[in-house]
């Protein structure tokens, strides 16, 4: 359930982050577009009145359709609007200036800005914090937009701070409520695991009776095809029940298991060599590349079960006269185990579904192989318990299972 809670919180956080990010970007772009259009319209008004901000009475005489958007001329506009003009000739040489409407710009600065504007080769644009407009009457209007730009930055900083605070508050509330949200899932999961455990134990009793009766029949009447089939199916049922119990117990660990120092090199070699006889019976070429003395903190029983599942899986489905390879190498953060077996796969084969319970990808994986589609689920659960994962890939005429086992797990020896 801890995994489910983490996923819920991660999903909520990701959703909030995306929503707030999109909102902030959209708000910033909208304000910038508004400020730019407002500045362009003001420059257009200044150009229409021969380089001056008109009086309010004069501006109000215009029809509403002729008034630019976002522009409001008041009695103070002539004094509040900061701008300057630079005149030039046909060869774009500066000839005159008008800096009486701004105090922060002198003639030298005005000339420099005009030359920079000519280099941009655009009739309108930004030059530092000024929005400029090159008119058809051979002069440039530079409108000071520093206050609007400052307001934009301040507003965005405030919005970012507010968004961050809201995200923290929402995530705190959501974290508290998530305990109540996952309670139905916890209860359902607990009942499911209890059902599997109870059903498995209940099934073992009739299976034991059937097995005993089959042995009595064989003793009285001798071994037959029917008695062999009964014994085989009993064995399959017992294996399935044990695998279900194993998987259920692994899930109950909820990310924690008893760890000890383990020489995984020896464990992999010991388990994989137990299947050599099966590979030999299929004339399979086996290759073992195992680095010596790789040590990790792990549960020895579980690691051996992991290696056993992958090696047994390879021994069942490897092609006749095919190839089996097992490789163990020492990485920086992980011990990496790779198991390969050659095999013939159907065109619609999906390797990612191999870890689904009871999944059988093709007709070759039938009950004749003795598998139930649970072993790989157990292997993945063990890999996750050891701070890693397991991946599959199809190449070289077969299938690879690559397991990553963390080397940084701390030994807590906590049992559940």
Structure in words:
The chain has helices at residues 2-48, 56-60, 77-80, 107-120, 146-181, 183-221, 225-252, 264-273, 276-281, 300-317, 375-385; strands at residues 83-88, 94-98, 124-127, 130-134, 139-144, 260-263, 285-290, 295-298, 323-330, 334-342, 389-395, 398-406. A hairpin with a 2-residue loop joins strand 3 and strand 4 (130-134). The chain contains 11 helices and 12 strands. Helices cover 52% and strands 18% of the residues. The strands form 3 sheets. Strands 2-1-5-4-3 form a 5-stranded antiparallel beta sheet, with helices on both faces. It is α+β, with helices and mostly antiparallel strands. The protein is elongated and about 120 Å long. It has 3 domains: 2-149, no CATH class; 183-252, Helix Hairpins (Orthogonal Bundle); 260-406, Heat Shock Protein 90 (2-Layer Sandwich).
Question: Which key phrases capture this entry?
Answer:
416 residues, alpha+beta, Helix Hairpins, Heat Shock Protein 90, five-stranded antiparallel beta sheet, five-stranded mixed beta sheet, 11 helices, 12 strands, 52% helix
């Amino acid at each position: 359930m801890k995994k489910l809670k983490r996923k819920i919180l991660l999903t909520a956080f990701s959703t909030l982050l995306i929503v707030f990010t999109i909102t902030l970007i959209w708000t910033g772009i909208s304000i910038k577009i508004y400020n730019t259009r407002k500045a362009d319209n003001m420059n257009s008004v200044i150009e229409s009145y021969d380089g001056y901000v008109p009086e309010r009475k004069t501006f109000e005489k215009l029809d509403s359709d002729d008034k630019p958007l976002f522009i409001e001329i008041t009695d103070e506009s002539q004094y509040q609007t900061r701008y300057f003009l630079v005149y030039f000739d046909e060869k774009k040489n500066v000839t005159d200036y008008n800096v009486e409407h701004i105090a922060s710009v002198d003639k030298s600065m005005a000339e420099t800005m005009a030359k920079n504007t000519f280099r941009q080769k655009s009739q309108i644009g930004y030059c530092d914090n000024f929005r400029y407009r090159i008119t058809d009457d051979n002069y440039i209007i530079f409108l000071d937009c520093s206050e609007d730009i400052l307001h934009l930055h301040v507003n965005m900083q405030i919005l970012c701070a507010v968004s961050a605070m809201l995200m923290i508050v929402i995530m705190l509330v959501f974290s508290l409520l998530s305990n109540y949200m996952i309670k139905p899932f916890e209860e359902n999961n607990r009942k499911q695991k209890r059902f599997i455990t109870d059903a498995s134990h209940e099934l073992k009793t009739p299976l034991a009776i059937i097995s005993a009766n089959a042995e009595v029949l064989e003793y009285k009447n001798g071994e037959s095809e029917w008695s062999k089939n009964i014994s085989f199916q009993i064995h399959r049922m017992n294996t399935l029940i044990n695998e279900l119990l194993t998987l259920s117990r692994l899930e109950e660990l909820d990310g924690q298991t008893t760890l000890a120092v383990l020489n995984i090199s020896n464990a992999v070699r010991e388990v994989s060599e137990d299947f050599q006889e099966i590979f030999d019976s299929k004339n399979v070429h086996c290759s073992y590349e195992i680095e010596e003395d790789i040590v990790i903190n792990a549960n020895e029983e579980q690691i051996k079960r992991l290696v056993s599942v992958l090696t047994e899986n390879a021994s069942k489905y490897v092609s006749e006269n095919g190839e089996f390879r097992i490789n163990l190498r020492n990485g920086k953060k992980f011990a990496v185990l790779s198991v390969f077996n050659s095999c013939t796969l159907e065109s619609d084969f999906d390797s990612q579904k191999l870890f689904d319970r009871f999944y059988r990808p093709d007709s070759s994986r039938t009950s004749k192989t003795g598998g139930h589609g649970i072993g790989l689920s157990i292997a993945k659960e063990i890999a996750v318990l050891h701070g890693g994962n397991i991946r599959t890939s199809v190449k070289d005429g077969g299938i690879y299972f690559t397991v990553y086992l963390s080397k940084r797990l701390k030994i807590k020896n906590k049992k559940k």
